[in-house]
Amino acid sequence: MAPSSSSALVASSSHSAMHTGEWDYDVFLCFRGDDTRHGFTSHLLAALSDRKIKVFIDTMLRKTESIDELLSVLQRSALSIVIFSENFADSTWCLDEVATIAQSMAKLGHRALPVFYKVGWSDVAEDSGNYSVTIHEKLKSSPEDDKRWRGALKTVANCAGHTSQAIQIESKLIKLMVEDVMKLLTDMSPSIKSNNLVGLGSRVWEVEQLLAMDSLDDTRIIGLWGMGGVGKTTLAKACYERMVSSTEEIKHHFIWNINENCERQRGVEGIVHELYSKLLSENNLGREDLDMNYRRARLSRLKVFIVLDAVETHCQLEQFLLGDVFNLTKLFATGSRIIVTTRNKKVLQNAMAKVYGIECLNDDESIQLFSLRAFRQYCPPDNWMHLSRIATSKCKGNPLALRVLGGTLFGEDKDYWESFLGGLSLIQNPQIRDILRRSYDKMGTDEKRLFLDVACFLHGISRSTVIGYLAVLYPAAHVKVKDLIDNSLLICRCSEYGEKIEIHDLLKTMALDIVNEEPKLGKRSRLVDPDDIYKLLTTTKVESWGTLYRELFFRGIEMMVPPRRKRRKVIDMDRKGKCALEGLITTEGINLNLSKAKEMHLEANAFQGMDSLTFLKFWRLLKYIYHYQPTKKIIHLPSGGIDSLPDRLRWLQWDEYPSKSLPSGIYPQYLVHLIIRWSPIENCWENFDQPKLVNLVVLDLSSCFNLTAIPDLSESSKLEELLLPECRSLVELPSHVQCLEKLIILDLGYCLNLERLPSKLNSKFLKFVRMHDCPKVKFCPEINSGDLMELDLNGTPVSELPNAIYHVKEGGSLHLYGEIFTNFPAISASLDMFWLCHTAMKEINSYDHQASFELPPKISNLRLCGNSQLKSLPKSIWSMAASSLTVMGSPLLESLPEISEPVNGLKLLYITECESLKCLPLSINNLVSLSDLRLGNTGIKSLPSSIEELERLCHLDLSNCKSLESIPSNFHNLPKLLELLLRGCSSIQYLPELPPNLSILDVSGCRLLQALPSNITKLSWKCLRFYDCPQIDRILPDEIMANYLVHAILSRHSKNELAYSGSDIPEWFEYKNVTDKDNSCLTVQLPPANCTGSKQPIKGIAFGVVWSSDAFDFWPIMKCECDFGTITMASWSSYSFSANTRDVTKSSDQVLLWFDKIKQSKEGETEAWFVKYASQTVLLRFSPDLRYTEGEKQTKNLTIKRYGVSPLY
């Protein structure tokens, strides 16, 4: 169909359908008849029809009707199911349908549910996917149709849907699709759509499944549970209205905000009387003296549907249900349904209700709800999207906050938005504050304090850690934490590491505001703000009255009677006008993020007088715990350190603690957590008796390089975590560690001088033992734990076979190392990860010769590294490695076993540094799931032709295969190959035609390569590298250079790179330096704003660098930073793909060109940087990007000779 026809149909369609939910058909089926009509589509149609869903399929059209009629029906349908199949893109009808679906989604609120049937998402959505190739090559489409179809395919493919590759059983796939259709149709029903209830459809559908109104053979209570403002009442109302409109024989009633009515009006009794009078159709609302037994008898014969909104206590629910919540069959007739909304989960548990926990909205739903309030439309205008995302990020999916914020910003200009959002605290809004504080205000004193502790200090960490710490401060801490979760003030989320305690950002902000209501800094119970902490620690000192008395005495001022007991007083330390903190300091906790803190110099007595302090945490978040690199010091202490720390400390964490030992004036008997990381500390306590750490649960001294001894843990019977990684000076782990019977984690990784360990570890709870890279350790302690999940001895050459290797549980991780292993260990557990490195194994034969093992265990990730004597692998290796197999550094390995049958699951195969390996198995095609094949530094001469059958292969690495002479001519048949690395393949002379989706090609160091493939200029490149290719350098195709700009601008990639040997920046660069002086800076004047305008015709910027180095192991990654005065307003880096170059000849000069598409430099910017700084002169600075290299070691000999930039329009 012509584009104009489609547009006309969209324009003429009734806009009211978006609001009323009225349509002719529920579902429009879009599919390729030749592919799926008599199979998958027919089964799906039957399943939808069985659920009374009105479906349109093309067979309902008369033969005389045209595509226009079909598209008209589509627009009168609520949603479309699009079945993407192999030949879908062959049909212009199908493509026109998808284009109309995309337009209807944007303009009419139409919904789409894609299913990828025997094709992948990339086949459909990517510009270089099979569909795009078909459109371009087979259909010979016009540029307009090409753009329209491709855009529509991407739009629809990006909707949430299903794939037959993930769900291979078709009946299960169809069942899930039908459920999704039901959810979407519920979401589009009149009661939801007309009220703009975003994201409610799927939730209503899920609650209706719990209500089971089609099977009224029992009586049920359904509980809607969640935090304030999350939409409990809204969801209950939607379910109630849908039920009322569809059911007449059931009595129904909705009681709003029971808790508030109980408090402000007649109490529970009056509301109960009103409810029962309504249900029983009694005209006696003024009488409350009626016989309840008589009412009970009548109610027991009545089928009801009631909603009890905002029930706070179990007592309220009992009174509503006549005290009989545990026997509903006697209270109401069978088939009755009761919905209860509450923040208190315990109310529902006591009533034996089915609990439905309401989650906050996701990002897309948040944007939609916010937009409806802020713009009165479903999606923000394009030039407001960035600010809208900033606004919604502050709400964290809370519907109430989104509605309030959207309404506040409605009709305001961008300056108002930026100013408002910059200083926004949503919790200050009375409507939000009152709802969120309701649960907090009803808590007891201990519960309030505990909630504030978690909100200010303890969120985001494990539940056991939170409870373990709080247990020493509050009685029944476990119960109190559960109550806070049940009351929706805290969230407990499950992760791969166990349960974590989290808190919604609005509730966290509320907690901080509650703390900040305490006006005086020294009186605030908890400090989180870096400025407040700086002021507290640097502007005060504390002296005892005794000290003050002595000072006054020596000054000749007589005091008659000093105070009888030692008290502390805060006086001004700075005599130059700073305000003193008056009175006693009652701060209970300090939590300082060092990355956000100002540099501060503390006095020796900085912590004196803080007798109430129980929590002190100076922390820094690092990406990697190991291989710590020193950062700028934030906290400085006097040469003698600090005098003392508060006696009542329970949690002491001081990352980068700057002294050699903790202060002598500390009495750590109450400490539960002691964490001193990345510190020059040598001994925790020096020159005095070791304290007894009787309450310690966690001791973390990670990366304390100078630590020579750990504290005395002989009485630390509660210790669960002992973390000592990278304690490089530690020689001995004391014998008393074996008596820590509650120990769960022991980490000794990279303790390079550790020699002596306890003979055994007695803890029955031990889960993680990390002793990797301890070169002086010769044995592994005996471990008798039945919970062992990880044993890591990689890099630790034990001389005895540790018995613990047989105790690792299913799904665990085992890393072994050393020549003590001459055979593959006969482990029976199926592990997630198993490393066997630098052993004396010659072959893996345990499972071939031991009758006790019929089949080897499944190992998700099997890694065999540095086994220099290994000569062969068994056939069972293919069934053993479930997800990935790595064999590295086995120079005697000559072949891989054949693969006798298809193997599902194995996705990654890394065979590297195996120089004797000459070929791959001819049956390599049986690895049907393989997506990543790495064969670097092997002796492979050629690839088998069967490699073309690896349909899922995305990455192929043949780097430094010096014997590789050819690649099969059918290589171009690999449909999904994205990356081909051939650097250092010094024998290869020709390349075949390349696969159609290839976007990364590196042939650096292929010194005999005579020519590039014929189709190289037709592909959409992300990265092309030709360093050190003398034949190519001489004949580098002019077409590649001439079309580089066109390829870069039209490419689907945000970044494109071209690298080759040379000494000049291309002539077409608009700005470049004219000398070889290496100042690496370039001055550029940006174009005026009227040259850009709102349409942003600047497509991107091309960067060029000529560099040289006589010593480097990796190709450097370059960056360019754009400065305006002292402001760095933007920065760009070349492709972050730093390849090893040890076998590539280093020629003198190299050229690196890269292209970055225009993007806003900072999140939240409403104007692109080139518009904001239009006509200004800016400075561009070029340098190696140290984030992706080995730092100065790799770049000290690197010289940037020439550089340039060129805006591309």
TrEMBL record:
SUPFAM superfamilies documented for this protein: L domain-like, P-loop containing nucleoside triphosphate hydrolases, Toll/Interleukin receptor TIR domain
Pfam family, one: TIR
Keywords from the named record: NAD
SMART domains the record matches: TIR
Gene3D superfamilies linked: Helical domain of apoptotic protease-activating factors (1.10.8.430), P-loop containing nucleotide triphosphate hydrolases (3.40.50.300), Ribonuclease Inhibitor (3.80.10.10), Toll/interleukin-1 receptor homology (TIR) domain (3.40.50.10140)
Keyword Chloroplast found: no
Entry's Gene Ontology BP terms: defense response; signal transduction
UniProt domain TIR: residue ranges: 23-185
GO MF term set: ADP binding
Source organism superkingdom: Eukaryota
Protein name as it appears in the record: TIR domain-containing protein
